[in-house]
Every structure is written in structure tokens, then in C-alpha cells.
Amino acid sequence: MPINQRVVEKEPSKEANAKKIQAWWRGTLVRRTLLHAALSAWIIQRWWRQKLARQLSVKLREVVQYYTMQEWAVVKVQAWIRMWQVHRCYCRLLNAVRIIQGYWRWLRRSLLHAALRAWVIQCWWRSIQAKMLEKRRRLTLRLYTCQEWAVVKVQAHVRMWRARRRFLQVREAACIIQAHWRWHTSQTRGLIKGHYEIRASRLELDIEILLA
Length: 212
Prior knowledge:
By secondary structure, the chain is mainly alpha-helical. 87% of the residues lie in helices and 8% in strands. The protein has 1 helix and 2 strands. It has a two-stranded antiparallel ribbon with strand order 1-2. A hairpin with a 4-residue loop joins strand 1 and strand 2.
């Protein structure tokens, strides 16, 4: 491709870029102008609204003040009337309360005396019950002790009888053994030595025979 044609093709792209830049700059100027105008309009609107709000607030304050004065006068009259009614009701209630308090004090005094008498009777009755319970406990303990002592005594006599019977049996066996032993000693030439031990349950015998 020749060089002249390349130069011709590049020139239209430069013009297009220049037009785009000009259009962007004009749009920026327009937007800046519109923003400045909108800011000015907003400032004016704000000032006008503040002025209207102040005027409305002044009028509202005057109306409220006038209404408040009227209401205050009505409220004050009503307060005086209610105060008089409440004072009259309070006096009646005070008299009724004094009557009720007097009756209640008399009733409380009577109840306290009755409670004190009941407490004295209860203490006396509890002491009587405690004495009776202590007496029963001692009697039961004495009876139990007598029974236990009788059982122990019977057991002791039974054990003593069994031990005595066993001792007599062992002594009789020992006497028989001694008699046979003496007889063997007299009949044999040798020497018989031995010893025995009597116990409650058995008889232990140890015999040694020596021949001459």
C-alpha cells in the first residue's frame, strides 16, 4: 500500500478524536452550569422554606400561647373545684379511718390478750405432755432393761449349766483314763509316762512308754 493512502486514512481518525474531545468539554461545561444553577436554586428554596417555617412557628406560638392561657384559666378553676371536693372527701375519710383505727386497736388488744392466754395454755399443755412423755420413756426403758437383764441372766445360767455338764463329762472321762493308766502301770514292767489336759470341748492325752 502506498504511503499517501496511509496518511489519508489516519487524518479522519484525528478529526473524530478532536470532535469527541470537544463534545466531552461542551458536556462538562453544560453540566457545570446546570449544577451551579441547581445549587443556586436549592439555596434559594432553602432560604424561602426557612423563612416560611419561621413565620409559621411564630403564628403557631401565638396560637398556642392564646390557647394555653385559656386552658390554664379553665384548668385552674377546675383544680380549685377538685381540690375542694378532694378536701371534703379527705375529711370524711379521715373521720372514718379514725373510727376504724379505734375499733381495730380495741380488737387487736382483745386478740393479743386471747393469744397470750392461748400461749400460756399451750405452754402448760406442752410441759404436761413433755413430763408424760419422759415418764413413758423412763418406764419403757426400765421395762426394756429388766427384760434384757432377764434374758442375759437366763443365757448366763444356760451357758453355766452347759459348761458344768461338759466339765463333769470330761472329769468322768479323765477319771476312767487315770484308772486304766494306773492299772497298766502296775501290770507292765516298763515305765509309762504321760500327761493329759482337760479342756471344755475335748480331752488331750499324751502317753510315753519306756521298756526296761
